[in-house]
Amino acid sequence: MVKIVAAGRGETVGMWPPEARFVICEFVLSRILNNNCKHFLLPRNVLLAEPTIMQFVIAITGKLSPKVLYLGTLHEDDEDTWKATGLPYELYGCSVTKLNLWNTPEEYKTSIIDVFERKMYETDILLLSGGHSIPGIAKWSSLGLVDILLNAARKRQDLVIAGGSAGALCWFAGTGLNLIPALIIPHYDTGAYYTPSWLLAKWQNTPTCICVDENAGFVVIDDTATVISADGHSKCYVVTRKSAPTAIPMEVNEVKRLAELDIIMPTNYSVKL
Predict the structure, then answer these.
(1) Fewest Cβ atoms nearer than 10 Å: which of 41, 122, 210, 252?
(2) How confident is the chain (273 residues) per 10-residue block, as mean pLDDT?
(3) Residue 100: what pLDDT?
(4) In this structure, what DSSP letter does residue 27 have?
């Protein structure tokens, strides 16, 4: 079951103390149910300490104090990124484990695989940093962790995955692990990424590119997609091989079938909240 939300940045409010106001890059939430994956993707500069977002991530685990496994591999286990991404969960009352992998030698591969697989089936939330997807995925691969990640994402019924920037991109087609068969361009309205036409030309087997404004969110529930917006006017755009190079806007609260967007999920899992 897959739920996808690609959204922009928000701001903390007064109910959080100043020390809890941490800024992170875009993030992806995904919850896996029955060989299915629910993803929530946010472009960048999201304040993950924003109460409604934090409460939502925790709420979908069904637990008051869920266990969180934090991976900073995509940003070379940068300490500041950890403070911005993982620490807010501790402040909220979660039990957070930080697993540094970037400097782990390959000769420790066997022991890391054992620890990682156990953690992946114990944790409630897998929290990924932002950074760079290609070297981060390469590091996971060198340690034998990619299959463990994908198997957990497809099989676990109760796992929530949250990731920043590259932590969102790594689950999609293109430079990612292709768990979701679509391309994605975050913070589309800033012009910071490649054009959708260029991406579709580069990855010929992927029919759709989702473009997300900084303050918008792309949401997939069951076989439908809709748009949420933090500011009321930011939106998402869909570019398919049929429409390219035209980016077709999806307005706030507009609902479309995934089939209309040429997003066809694998048959071994469906899309459901």
Answers:
(1) 122
(2) 38 31 33 40 43 65 90 93 84 92 90 93 88 93 93 80 74 84 84 83 90 74 71 86 91 87 70 28
(3) 95
(4) E
For 86, left (φ over 0), alpha (ψ -120 to 50), or beta? alpha
Question: Under a CB-based contact definition with an 8 Å cutoff, are residues 239 and 196 in contact?
Answer: yes
CATH number at residue 52: 3.40.50.880
Q: What is the pLDDT of residue 192?
A: 67
- Domain region containing 92: 5-261
Residue 267 falls within a domain, yes or no?
Answer: no
Q: What is the pTM of this model?
A: 0.74
Domain assignment of residue 192, yes or no: yes
**Cα angle for residues 257, 57, 139 (degrees, 5° grid):** 90
The Cα–Cα gap between 128 and 196 comes to 25
In a domain, 158, yes or no: yes
At 37, is the secondary structure helix, strand, or coil? strand
Number of domains in the chain: 1
- Taking CA atoms, 101 is separated from 33, 152, 181, 202, in Å, by 27, 18, 27, 31
Six-digit token string for 14: 């007064």
